[in-house]
Write a structure and sequence with these properties.
The protein is mainly α. It contains 6 helices and no strands.
Amino acid sequence: MTAIGQNIKLCRERAGVSQEELALKIRVGTQTIQRYESGEQTPNSQTILKISTALDVPASVLMGEIYYAATPELEQKPTSLLKET
């Protein structure tokens, strides 16, 4: 699996979107989504933009290194680490 394929899968799953739904949103076949996620096929830049729009994530996240989506609780900094002013 390629980094972009894994990122598409992780972002799709985090968004709660099935492969079929994503395929419909970007107007490709479900098998095409399966090929992207498995790394068999790499989407072109126009398709990456469509996927990023459909999943509401920046295209740079899809194209970057493997994206491990943190849970919302982990994205917040503990108050004990914040500097007092």
